[in-house]
């Protein structure tokens, strides 16, 4: 009975290893945690689009790196 359980555990481990190998981008190390708050953003600008006003994102975690969030109070937040 113990040998049967051991074989099942080894088989289960191998199946899990194969599934993780098939999709290597989903590791726990690559996870990014974004804060759950939204700034009052009017628009966003990014170096790649020049001065074009883009649809705003909630915060810097959700916007591309290097972009600037322009807030409704006239201030701005640089997302570096």
Written overview of the protein:
The structure is a single chain. This protein has 80 residues and is an alpha+beta fold. It has a domain of 44 residues. The protein has 1 helix and 3 strands. Strands 1-2-3 form a 3-stranded antiparallel sheet, with no helix packed on it. The longest helix has 21 residues.
Count of alpha/pi helices: 1
Distance between the termini: 58 Å
How much is the average pLDDT?
Answer: 80
Q: Using the alpha-carbon principal axes, give the shape.
A: elongated
Which range does the strand content fall in?
15-25%
Low-confidence stretches: none
Radius of gyration: 23 Å
Class by SSE composition: alpha+beta
Bin the helical content: 25-40%
Total beta-strand segments: 3
Tell me the major beta sheet: 3 strands, antiparallel
Order of helices and strands: HEEE
Strand order of the largest sheet: 1-2-3
